[in-house]
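call fold(seq) -> tokens
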Amino acid sequence: MTTCSSRPLFFFQGRLLTKTIPVIFRHLVITLFTLSIMFWLEPWLAAAGMFMVVILAVLVRFQGGSLRYCSRNKRTLEGKVSGFTQEVVKGMTTVQALSAEDYVRDRFIDINRATLKAGIKETAAAVNMERTMQIINGFAVSLIMGGGAVLVLSNQLTVGDLTVFVAYMVQLLKPVEKINEMASAVSRGLTRAEHLTSLLNVKPEIQDKPNAVAIKDCLGVIEFRSVSFSYPGHATEQRVLDKVSFRLVPGQLTVVTGNSGSGKSTLINLILRQLIPTSGEILIDGKSYKEVALASLREQFAVMLQQHHLFSGTLRDALWLNSTDINEGYVWKTLAKVDMENYVRQLPQGLDTILNEDGHNFSGGQRARISLARALLLDRRILLLDEPLANIDERSQKIILKALDQIRQCKTCLVISHLPVLIDKADTVLRLDGGMLSIQHHKSNLNEKELYDEIIDCMLQTLPGKITTDFAK
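ret:
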């Protein structure tokens, strides 16, 4: 993201170095040469001309700040127009379903009108700067001609010298006019650069500690110990989660249920460390989240969210998010697990089929199965599924359930769902209600050592090499 976002800034810097700075240098040399000739012809008139140039430079700096402020305001409002337009286009179905066209149109007109006013102010600032420059330029030439005429009448300067001097004065003012023209362009460019720089300088709220370590041979055991969470600005008693404690282990399917707003999505965000607990501690394989490098932690999770967002491009690119070269055999095998292999093979372009935005050229059930296949292709120890059976047909639900039965054997699986068919398959059912967690159902009667032995047996089937047993201690 940083690389993509910084490209316009690099383009602006390149343009500044290759075009703007050389032009400024050329006009600076011309100005110094012209002043030298003017001082040689008549020092007093040259000093007056130099004084006018200083006044113009101060003016450019003063009014350039005003122009930059107007440009910044205009760019901000243009961003709002673009953002609102994108939001409306993406939610067009909702707008039409709610018959909210008039509201959306009026709001767009209001935002666009504000942008238009900001553009007029920017143009007015540029025109005002140009007008003032022309007035001072005329005054400077008049001053030089008047002073030169007095010197000619007193026989201190010839008419020819005065003509040359005035010509040099006009030549001296041209670089200043050019710099004025460039000031408008540079002000607009600086506005964009400032915005990009502010975005690139934003530091993530969650950062690694200096001594954070990477996870090696992850077992996939997640443990919450009296974890509480409340959003910033909310009262302490308005906790989304209140002293929640539970444990996720490989080979078991845990289903979290609860009413809307009970904290289920917050729970997943805490597991992914996109949020930090207000109090309590979260551990992975016996290590506190605080001790583990963030990138290494998130590399242990494969996630299927309720909104099945698929990246545009080919189906192959949408499925394979690993940094390694694609393994097509593994892709087809995974598609078979979600009953999409035959369908994709029958497509004219197969894995090279182009996906529209969010994959809308596939049905809802197909998008859900592709999303699950993408998560499985990551082949990570912990699988998090948020309402995997929501808004899809019964056949797709059965296919996803069958795939889940196959992959749950040696993975840590957490599913958020309120559907009985998933709850019946769960080893553990956790219910969230008002921030409090209760265990409603638990199939496992294994003691701690038996549970650990089961985890190790599962890991030996899938992970090569030696597996440490620190977690058992």
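The two ends are 41 Å apart (CA to CA).
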